[in-house]
Amino acid sequence: MADIVHLDGIWTKFLELWPVEKVRAMTLEQYHSLNDPACFQRCLESMAGMLGSIRGKSAIKFGIYERNDKDVPKEDTSHYAYSDTYAWRPSLGGSPEEAFAAVKENILSIIEAMQNRDLDAVSHDALWPMIAWKIAFLYQDRNDPQVLSVYKRAKLIAALGDDAVRLSTAELYRRLMARRNGKNLHEYSEEIWNMTSPKAGDSREETTGMPQPTASEHPIPLNQILYGPPGTGKTYATVEKALEIFAAAGMRDVGATREKKRQRFDELVADGHIRFVTFHQSFSYEDFVEGIRASTDDEGRISYQVEDGIFKELCREAHEAAKTGKTTPYVLIIDEINRGNISRIFGELITLVEASHRACLPNSPHTRDSISVRLPYSRDLFSVPENVYIIGTMNTADRSLTGLDAALRRRFSFMEMPPRPELLEGSRLQGTEFSLADLLDRINRRITVLLDKEHRLGHAWFMGLGTVVTAEALAIVFRNHILPLLEEYFFEDWEKIRWVLNDHRKELENRLLRQDEGDPLELFGENVQLPDIGQVWHWNEDAFENMDTYVQIINVGYKSEKIDEEDNFFKFDSEHEKSFKKEYSYDIYRIREYTDPPRYILIINGRVIPPEERKLKHELRPIAKKLGIDLAHNARTYDFVTTILKTWQSLKEQA
């Protein structure tokens, strides 16, 4: 049984030792020092060990650490970079200072994410995931927590069931916290931990979390394809996948943030180490490997030369670099790989790209059954070196995996990129309790039933719409992306499109699709023999700007109505009213669901405030504090809160 008082005391002590202000000013020596038991790493791992331990494995999990073997000379590897004093992950930078800057940036971004209650923004670019989530746990709002003191992803998945494996860690925490039902956080964390049988050496206080990756345990495939429906971020993910290859090869400073990663990616493209090509129906062997090209001289005479294609050129440069002792990877990204005729494009090279048939580089640790072929045009002897990587993307809406060339399927690893509605949890539909995640999930569930999962809609179409999503923003996405895709998917089977949009159950003004009411006799007269005329459908332009149109895709009985400020607004002491309105915007919406009595939701600065009195008080405390109202020491100052509560209560009574 968890000792709640003791655990709360440890939590308080940690935050007293490492308040946010001190973390912002933290130096490398304060982050980790073998001689300082109060350094950040040791406090995180040892002092706060009972709040879900992160002990075990290498200290590289912290990104950078002080070496205890300074007297032993060490050379850099693909997983470790060394100075006389420190060891760090090579991908974080070329010096201890650069690596620590990346780690500190990551830690501060986690703290900021928790202050903003944005679990999806918790990243582990410079840290192992279990370290990142323990920091998130410690710096979350203790009065309204979002993270359990369980940092082992497998434990979280086990508590929710095998279907949860596709969920992000942030979504795992959200779903588990939704089941807490008022239980103490420490006791609930222990309960979740104990839901699965412990392994030998695996305890609540000592979980190793994520094992240290090694090249042998998790080799990066030489050939891989990212597949999924449109809009799931496949092309976006190729940047991450390409940089993983260079980081595993020992390249330092591949970037800790998305902006820096993109910058590093562009540099590698400019250096020729990364190439990009899109397959299409006209793309051929001559474009990819080699072909004969005609050219004319100044006098108009035609001549023919053999020209290298993009893949042969890349392989030649990789071979030439290897002769000088450089084994830096070369990466070819093939977008829409399934749109090309694979047999025609690859030709005999489909055998050579197989990992076991790659050409070994000088001093290679691998033993391969290398194969070379003589090319048909140039008669060059050609092989594919082992430092050439191929990353392909394919839309499953165009062709399923079963429709791919069988030889290609055998030689490539496949990574599914499904829609991730959980990334949209933080974007709420204006004036409602629903998020974009709810909208996308409901649409995709219907598409899966009517077609298949390969035609689901991706989350990327909805990314970047902000935390409060307006009907106008949704109208742009639906007009430009969603509806054209649905027309393509269903071959203008308008009835099924209506089912996906829930239009057949909506009131007329909220339907995106309407049937033409025209009379054929009025159009053609009585003497024209007309065949059976199908129904004529058109888009209802008025519905695009109405939020109920989109909300009723989720719940057809849901209607949201904003209450005018002059009818119902919060009247505080005059001293506080102006400052509140200057700092905060608030709205009240009347919600009706089917024939149920109306209820009300309060939204302050775009956030839906829970109607429970305890949670409402909790949400209002920071607002009161910002306005200079001390809620802790003077009962009179509760007027601010009680005024809102009274207004809230009157609305509930009206309902």
From TrEMBL:
InterPro entries associated with the record: AAA+_ATPase, ATPase_dyneun-rel_AAA, Methyl-DNA_Rec/Restrict_Enz, P-loop_NTPase
Region of interest called Disordered, as start-end residue ranges on this chain: 197-222
Domain AAA+ ATPase: from-to ranges: 220-422
Gene3D superfamilies per the UniProt record, alphabetical: P-loop containing nucleotide triphosphate hydrolases
Domain of life: Bacteria
One MF annotation (Gene Ontology) recorded for this entry: ATP binding
SUPFAM superfamilies xref list: P-loop containing nucleoside triphosphate hydrolases
Name of the featured protein: AAA domain-containing protein
